[in-house]
Structures are given as C-alpha cells and as structure tokens.
Amino acid sequence: MELDDIKTTSDQLEEMVDNPDGATNAGDYVQRLLPESNDSNRKETGNGDITENQNKKSQKNFFRKHGKWIAAIFLILLIALVITISVAVCFANNEDNDEKYDPSLFKLQQKFNGSFIVNLVQTSNKTQVLKDLQEKLADLYRSSPALGRFFSEAETFGLRSDSAVVQYKLTFVYPEEQQAELRNFTLSSEMVFNVFRQFLYDQSDVESETRFVDPSSLKMHTMH
Description:
Elements: H1 3-18, H2 22-33, H3 35-93, E1 106-117, H4 126-142, E2 151-157, E3 165-175, H5 179-186, H6 189-202, E4 219-223
Antiparallel strand pairs: 1-3, 1-4, 2-3
Helix pairs in contact: 1-2
C-alpha cells in the first residue's frame, strides 16, 4: 500500500469516527481492509487440523496392521529377559558341593600299580627318566577334573639297564562317607586307567611317529 493510500485511508477513518454512525462504518471498513488475512488464518488452521487427523489415522492404521507382530516381539523379548534373569540367579546361588571338601576327612586309600614300556632310544639317563615320569604322572592326576582332589602320590621305579619296563604306583585318598560311590565309579581302576592311557595317546609325537611311552604296553591293577 502506497503512502498516499495510507493517508487517504487515515482521513476516511477520522471522518467516520467524527460521524455518529461512523463507528459502525469504520468497523465495516476495517474488516473489508483485512479479508485476506482472516481467510489466510482460517486456511492455515484448517490445514493444521487436516494434517493432525491424517497423522492420527496413519498411526491407527499402522497399529492395526502391525499390532500383532509388535505384541509378539515384545512377548518374546520379555520371555528371554525372564529366562536370562532366572539363569543368572541360579548360577549366582548355585554352590557346587564337590568343590567344597575337607582333605582332612580323606582317610581311606585306594592304590593302583602297573607298568609300561618306554622308548630308551630317546634318552640314556634312566634315573632322570624315572624322575620325569613320576612328575608327569603326578601332574596328570593332580590336574584331572574328576580325580585331582583325591590324588595323593605317584611313584615310578624298576627301570633296569637290561629292561625298558617302568613300574609305577598311584595312591588316592577319599572320605569314608562316600566310600562305595568313589571306589566303584570315580576311583575305579577303569577310570584311573583311561585317564592315563588317554594322556599317553595325546602325547604322541606326530612328527617322528614315535611315542616315548607305548600306550598299548600300559597295565594297571588295583592293590588290595
């Protein structure tokens, strides 16, 4: 709007105000000056309401189509969370009674003896051979998950100049309250023998295909 138009409009408003009927005419005149602004506000408000309604409809349609999948995923996650918490609590509260034992109660003994053949080509010091074998036997049974807590002693002897046969003796101790179970299962000759034999197979020298101790020569008996 130009400056001259603004001045003319201002003069017209003053004349209307001076006229007794000018107040009504002035109001009508102002409303005629601002029709576009009012229409614009109405359109913007109407557009905002339409957009909001569309968003609400879109959300409703989304939940109608995917509501079951969302509920199923939420249920699976909830179950997994409950299982995880339950397992964690069980592990936290679980106490392995086998790991708690008093060696002073192990007063009964279970002894085994036997023999095996060594390959003397690999060494000439037979005294050192017996010492090394004794240490290996002790380490083997001491580190065994099933037999380690009951192992007491290992001895090797009998290696003569004219023989490659090594004699050995194993001693295990255990409590009286579990006597039958331990003697018949954990400390049975089959269990102790299999641990020794598997160790010998694992020690196989793959490169030379020669074993220091021949597993097939291993013998074991229960001492009474």
